[in-house]
Amino acid sequence: MRAVLRQNGYQSILWTDSVTDLRDTIDRQASVVAIIDTHAALPAELAILGDLCLSSRQGCFLLLGRESVIDAFPRPGSAKLIRLRDPLDPMLIVEHVTACFHPPQTRTNRLEEDLKQFLGLI
Amino acid sequence: MSKSKITLAIAGPKGGVGKTTISANLAIALTQTGKDVVVIDLDLGASNLHSFFGIKSPPHTLNDYVLNKVTDLNAICVPGQWPGLRIICGGDVPGIANLHYQKKAKLLRNLVHLDSDYILLDLGAGAAYNVIDFFICAKAGLLVTTPEVPSLLNTYSFIKTLLFRRLTFYFRRLKAQPLLDLLDKARDADAHPEFKNMAGILHAIHAIDPAAATAVDQIVQQFKPLIVVNRVKTAEDARSGDVLQNVMRQYLDVSGGNILRVNEDPKVAEAIARLKPVMSSAPQSTFAHDIKRVAVQLNRILG
Question: Which range scores top for mean pLDDT: A55-64, A94-103, B239-248?
Fold first, then answer.
């Protein structure tokens, strides 16, 4: 999955054990894709990861695992969360990620993008 | 007994967005909510607040204070035509636009001696330190913008400049040269893209001084500017404040401020041409209603 994302121009990070590392990477890279495999997470870690999804102002989260677990994840504000269900289709995932980072242009979206470009933020 | 005062700085980083129109009419609207108000023209070097009230020859101005003819700001207040309103008209002595730091600090200290519920500071356009420092020292700040990109850009840049100024003061007080050097680097975000957002700056501060990073985070979180989007014509215009707020939240960590909206109204231009505040020349107009709503919201937010 990471290879397909890379081929399509997206950097990704795979959550293994450190939420702090994950948070730091997301804070530093606005367009990073964080892949979280909930199979490997303990209940306490799930709670922390859920908080991270809620509090993150950027990035895109791909959530893998049992449906009951990933559906229970909180819905983030500006950060994007994609719940992945089997069977995984890499190209469909790329489409979802692209939609997260490049949503269809509305006038409001365009204004935000214009501001960011003029301010040299993107 | 002296009143509990709210000093509210009003700035319009891009000129011509209606800042002084809003200052003058908001001052009147606040008196209509039962508050005493002093509004001061601190658009140093380009003052014209008095003209919005139709005052052609003010008996006293800020000149009297700057030239040390008076020491008490109460002495140069001109009574407004509305109960509870006093005005300190701007001065025009040469050099007033570049007020010396000590003079500025003295003026700020003396503001607290004004006996009033609200002290409105009508500041100049731009993001010069004269403007920024008055804004920082006020209890609350209100930024006036229009929905267009140039004005929104200037408003964002004003807030970023203000935060950097605030952090510079803090690091100077700590005598933390490495943090001041870091801030200098962060000013050049093209050369240091990791500092394009506050999270990156905080990360770097944390690596040097974790306690300072915590304090800086608090300084940033406490900054909650009020933003008035003036001259709103469409629903998209009305959303422009939210867009600006979204960008500020993403890149400056500034959130939780309130967005207030004032609709476009031809009565404003008519009132300015007649040298009368809209609140008296067209009290039932859309603008007057919007300003009254802003006054009520301010009392709720700041009171």
Answer: B239-248
What CATH number corresponds to the domain at position A51? 3.40.50
How do beta strands B85-88 and B78-79 pair?
antiparallel
Q: Which residues of B35-65 are buried (b: 16+ CB within 10 A; e: fewer)?
A: bbbbbbbbbbbebebbebbebeebebbbbbb
Q: Look at residue B248 and tell me if it is in a domain.
A: yes
**pLDDT of res. B3:** 60
For residues B47 and B131, membership in a common domain is answered with: yes
Q: Which of A28, A116, A120 sits opposite B194 (nearest CB)?
A: A28
Question: What gap in Å lies between CA B237 and CA B210, rounded to an integer?
Answer: 41
How many structural domains compose chain B? 2
Return the CATH number at B95: 3.40.50.300
What are the tokens at A30?
Answer: 């606005």
CB atoms within 10 A of CB A91: 9
In a domain, B89, yes or no: yes
Q: Under an 8 Å CB criterion, which residues of A touch B?
A: 24, 27-28, 30, 57-58, 78, 107-108, 111-112, 114-116, 118-121
- Cα distance between residue B171 and residue B55, in whole Å: 44
pLDDT at B1: 44
Q: Which residues of chain B carry a pLDDT beneath 70?
A: 1-4
Instruction: State the CB neighbour count (10 A cutoff) for residue B169.
Output: 13
Going across the sheet that includes B259-263, the strands are B78-79, B85-88, B37-42, B118-123, B6-11, B140-145, B226-232, B259-263
This complex has an ipTM of: 0.89
CB B236 to CB A119 under 8 A?
no
Nearest CB to A115; choose among B156, B199, B236: B156
Q: Are B200 and A121 in contact (CB under 8 A)?
A: no
Residues B173 and B276 in one domain: no
Chain B's closest residue to A109, CA to CA, is: B243
**Which of B247, B249, B255 has the highest number of chain A CBs within 10 A, making it the mutation to test binding with A?**
B247
Same domain, residue pair B121 and B207: no
Long-range contacts of A14-18 (CB under 8 A, 24+ apart): A15/A49, A16/A40
Nearest-Cα distance to chain A for B236, in Å, is 7
